Design the sequence.
């Protein structure tokens, strides 16, 4: 956990919101709003409990599927990735909301990666955004069309895909995916992404780039168990030369959290 109580791998988006008009006290809408407020305030343990109670007491209420997703966000943020993945897999079998299903799969990929299942995580990202060119090249065609993704969803997807590739030691593909995320952010049409969301996505990208950079430098700059002074100095120069971009990336992460 960091100093704000967030899990170090937190990359999940702001919770799914339920649009309502001034909820009646004691109604399912008011309980939804209370849980959402706690989650937005960063009280993830309390919010997870409130979402669980909502799911038990208000089956079928408006926003029920979103409540499941929001509880999964809380569990993932608290480091309970396996529990989050189980919730999301179940939700995907019952929700007919295409936009919510895309968000679920992106968070599911992150949860699977954190649970030590990078291959399943990678396959999950391709369920949301397939590589159509590669599929066409080997003669595959899809029977069903994949849902149209928002710009924010594409940025999140390429970002987590880059981190997954890195965990599989596929550095070229890792950097390629992260570059796609960065280009989408840099060339986003004016006004399409809110300032707050842009800061979040930029920090998310920078954090994942830091992780990939650390793994890349670790593999590129090896060292023996015992080092002479000269060997150590050469190793230090090589490693910090590789890791130099980390300074700017970390500043980007900190800036987004103010």
Sequence:
């Amino acid at each position: 956990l960091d100093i704000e109580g967030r899990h170090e791998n937190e990359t999940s988006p702001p919770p799914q919101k339920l649009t309502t008009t001034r909820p009646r006290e004691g109604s399912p809408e008011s309980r939804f709003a209370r849980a959402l407020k706690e989650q937005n305030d960063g009280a993830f343990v309390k919010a997870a409990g409130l979402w669980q109670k909502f799911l038990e007491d208000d089956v079928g209420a408006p926003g029920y599927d979103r409540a499941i997703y929001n509880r999964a966000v809380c569990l993932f943020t608290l480091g309970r990735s396996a529990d989050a993945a189980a919730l999301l897999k179940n939700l995907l079998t019952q929700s007919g909301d295409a936009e919510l299903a895309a968000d679920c799969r992106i968070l599911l990929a992150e949860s699977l990666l954190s649970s030590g299942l990078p291959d399943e995580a990678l396959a999950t990202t391709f369920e949301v955004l397939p590589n159509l060119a590669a599929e066409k090249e080997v003669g595959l065609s899809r029977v069903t069309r994949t849902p149209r993704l928002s710009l924010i969803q594409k940025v999140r997807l390429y970002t987590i895909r880059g981190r997954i590739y890195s965990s599989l030691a596929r550095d070229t593909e890792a950097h390629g995916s992260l570059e796609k995320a960065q280009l989408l952010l840099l060339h986003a049409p004016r006004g399409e992404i809110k300032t707050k969301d842009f800061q979040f996505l930029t920090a998310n990208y920078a954090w994942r780039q830091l992780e990939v950079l650390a793994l890349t430098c670790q593999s590129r700059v090896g060292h023996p168990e015992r080092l002479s002074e000269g060997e150590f100095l050469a190793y230090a120069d090589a490693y910090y030369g590789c890791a130099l971009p980390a300074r700017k990336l970390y500043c980007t992460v900190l800036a987004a959290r103010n």
The chain is about 65% helix and 0% strand. The radius of gyration is 20 Å. The CA atoms of residues 50 and 148 lie 32 Å apart. The mean pLDDT is 82.
